[in-house]
Amino acid sequence: MLKRGVVLFLCLALVLAFAATAIAGPVVDRIVKNKVLVVGTSADYPPLNFKATNGKAMGLDMDLATILAKALKVKLKVKIMPFPKLIGALQAGKVDMVIAGMTMLPLRNLKITFAGPYFVTGQGAVLKGEMMTKVRGLQDLNQPMYTVAVSEGTTGEITAKQLMPKAKLLVAKDMEGALQAVLTGKAQVMVTDFPFCVLASFRHRKDNLAALEKPFTYEPLGVAVSADDPQMLNLVNNFIGTMGASGGLDQLKIRWFKKSGWMKNLPADE
């Protein structure tokens, strides 16, 4: 349960003050009319977002969505779909926003608008322990003898293509598929966001999985919103700014990155 009364009060005051003075946009109109905030996510990137054992989406991203929905006094509806389909769903109006650990890339920004960032991360690598003696950095993996696993449509795929063009590329449909490629020996390394690498190495220690010590890129994560609704962008940016200034984002990071109680909600095959 989220017990963040002060944060909720600040966010609510922020949203109400803004709504009283602004002209509603199409997405905001839809949220107010339906009294529902529809959020798209991939639910495959713990601890930011994942599908729990009860089938519901959990994680820092989902906590952020929950707090915003409460501040707006509307219900939260989460739609889980493959990561590559999220931007299309946003453009088609099937979701009101996307919170899915999405990096604020210029190419994505041509299609949609980003609020934030609400979190900063970078690309990392996870590999079998025996490979650690051979690899000091990504340049050591840029060889035809190695296969690099990535999740389709992610910055991991972009990074692998740019920094390891000589290596073979295995593109999986999601994060779990890319990780399984490393665990089963189909690939020697997986390139993906650093928090996922650290979590994967912790959960699969018995499989001799390890993560490179530091991320090797800088990646701000943002909330994707429609480019056709400036009010929605303003609203979410103000919400993220208030969460940051009030300490709410720091509290969420502690909950999901410093504590391990949430791991009991991960499916056994995550």
- Quickly name the level 1 CATH class of the largest domain: Alpha Beta
Major beta sheet, specifics?
A: 5 strands, mixed
Q: Per the principal axes of the C-alpha atoms, what is the gross shape?
A: globular
Biggest sheet, spatial arrangement of strands: 5-1-6-13-7
CATH architecture of the largest domain: 3-Layer(aba) Sandwich
Number of domains: 2
Number of strands: 13
Distance between the termini: 23 Å
Strand proportion: 15-25%
- Can you give the mean pLDDT? 90
Helix content: 25-40%
- In N-to-C order, the SSE pattern is HHEEEEHEHEHEEEHEHEHEEHH
Low-confidence stretches: none
Give the CATH topology of the largest domain: D-Maltodextrin-Binding Protein, domain 2
**Radius of gyration, CA atoms, in whole angstroms:** 19 Å
What class would the helix/strand composition place it in?
A: alpha/beta
What count of helical segments does DSSP give? 10
Describe this structure in words.
This protein has 270 residues and is α/β, with parallel strands linked by helices. The chain has two domains: 5-121 and 220-265, 3-Layer(aba) Sandwich (D-Maltodextrin-Binding Protein, domain 2), CATH 3.40.190; 123-211, D-Maltodextrin-Binding Protein, domain 2, CATH 3.40.190.10. The protein is 39% helix and 24% strand. It has ten helices and 13 strands. The protein has helices at 5-21, 26-34, 60-72, 86-91, 106-109, 155-163, 175-183, 194-203, 230-246, 248-258, and strands spanning 36-41, 44-45, 49-51, 57-58, 75-80, 97-103, 113-121, 123-128, 147-151, 168-172, 189-193, 209-211, 219-225. The strands form three sheets. The protein has a five-stranded mixed beta sheet. A five-stranded mixed beta sheet has the order 10-9-11-8-12. Helix 6 (155-163) links the parallel strand 9 (147-151) and strand 10. The two termini are 23 Å apart. The relative contact order is 0.20.
